[in-house]
């Protein structure tokens, strides 16, 4: 006989775990269903997740008021989550944006500066000469300026944040079921959630499955959502490099073409005991239409050409990295045509969806999860929560 809950959250990643925690503070009868991180990627035949990492940039400086607001709301709760769970995940090392002077009001840095001003975020603008003096780790081009957010910015450990959210959710009464969902069906007055090990019923279901949202028959109709490949590069640091880079902020560098920007994480210790500086970009095209293709990508070390491009850029920007051992990994980012996350109901009034990180959502995941909990509790979102701007688009 199927076990019944009031609400089920599908997906134990950054959105789903946050939604479960917020639900645990308001109601009973909640289940969070999602598999654990695989121990062996090569033999794993289930779903993956992009939060299987130790560092993601967090900052409020953003060209979109929605993303800036969600980041700010989440940042305001980081320390609370750390204190209540006993799990640290936030490093307030600041965030630095670097790029050419904006040429028009449409440029990202111009729009982000305007949003920061309107929301009273303290962001210091640094001309090229000050930039070089403040951040000697870098060898920036002479024509670029900096935008430095010293407080409420830095990086988070996504694995640790998900652990903290899940711990607090279960402590608040949420049932955590470490299984992969294979089907979701609206049966009229209830929703049936199927896994390989059993069925579960709920009054309402929130699908927060990230890049895997369109697979496994989780939704009545597929989302307009592109699951795109991304490659990240790691520089293994020794003592000399640590002395050079240990005080750097999280950094995002724009070239003369905004779409060629790269992001750089400060040195972080990984589970293998080594310290790595990570770098990634946002230019890889294409997407995955089949579950098998996403699984195959996660089993690789990313794209060889993109890996070399990122290595070359990193050494050009940070000459002190020259000679460091390098490695790479595959990641997947989910993009929506609106460039905003989806938070709303499907054709079924009992099945809601929370998806579409657009490569910037890790820092905002607690707030996005809160909005997912409101979808289940209240049936919709108001204008204070940008509800109409996050209506899901379907294929």
TrEMBL record:
GO molecular function: flavin adenine dinucleotide binding; sarcosine oxidase activity
Keyword set includes Oxidoreductase: yes
Pfam family, one: DAO
Required cofactor names: FAD
UniProt entry keywords in alphabetical sequence: FAD, Flavoprotein, Oxidoreductase
Domain FAD dependent oxidoreductase intervals: 7-370
InterPro entries the record matches: FAD-dep_OxRdtase, FAD/NAD-bd_sf, MTOX
Top-level taxonomic group: Bacteria
Name of this protein: FAD-dependent oxidoreductase
Source organism of the structure: Pseudorhizobium pelagicum
């Amino acid at each position: 006989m199927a076990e019944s809950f009031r609400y089920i959250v599908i997906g134990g990643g950054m959105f789903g775990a946050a939604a479960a925690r917020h639900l645990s503070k308001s109601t009973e009868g909640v289940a969070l269903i999602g598999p654990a991180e695989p121990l062996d990627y090569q033999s794993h035949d289930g779903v993956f997740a992009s939060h299987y990492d130790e560092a993601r940039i967090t900052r409020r400086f953003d060209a979109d008021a929605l993303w800036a607001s969600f980041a700010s709301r989440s940042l305001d709760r980081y320390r609370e989550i750390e204190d209540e769970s006993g799990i640290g995940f936030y490093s307030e090392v600041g965030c630095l944006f670097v790029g050419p002077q904006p040429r028009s009001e449409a440029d990202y840095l111009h729009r982000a500066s305007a949003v920061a001003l309107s929301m009273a975020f303290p962001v210091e603008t640094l001309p090229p000469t000050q930039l070089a003096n403040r951040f000697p780790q870098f060898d920036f081009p002479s024509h670029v300026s900096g935008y430095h957010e010293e407080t409420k910015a830095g990086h988070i450990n996504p694995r640790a944040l998900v652990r903290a959210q899940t711990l607090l959710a279960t402590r608040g009464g949420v049932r955590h079921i470490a299984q992969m969902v294979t089907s979701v069906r609206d049966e009229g007055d209830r929703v049936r959630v199927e896994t390989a090990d059993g069925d579960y019923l709920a009054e309402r279901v929130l699908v927060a499955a990230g890049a895997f949202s369109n697979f496994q028959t989780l939704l009545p109709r597929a989302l307009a959502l592109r699951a795109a490949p991304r490659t990240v590069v790691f520089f293994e640091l020794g003592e000399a490099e640590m002395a050079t880079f240990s005080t750097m902020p999280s950094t995002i560098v724009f070239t003369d073409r905004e779409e060629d920007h790269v992001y750089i994480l400060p040195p972080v210790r990984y589970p293998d005991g080594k310290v790595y500086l990570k770098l990634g970009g946002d230019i890889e095209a294409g997407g995955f239409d089949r579950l098998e293709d996403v699984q195959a990508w996660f089993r690789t070390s990313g794209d060889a050409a993109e890996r070399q491009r990122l290595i070359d850029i990193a050494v050009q920007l940070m000459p002190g990295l020259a000679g460091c051992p390098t490695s790479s990994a595959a990641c997947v980012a989910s993009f929506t045509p609106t460039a905003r996350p989806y938070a709303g109901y499907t054709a079924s009034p009992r099945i809601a969806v929370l998806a579409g990180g657009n490569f910037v959502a890790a820092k905002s995941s607690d707030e996005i999860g809160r909005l997912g909990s409101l979808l289940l509790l209240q049936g919709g979102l108001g204008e204070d929560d940008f509800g109409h701007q996050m209506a899901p688009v379907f294929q």
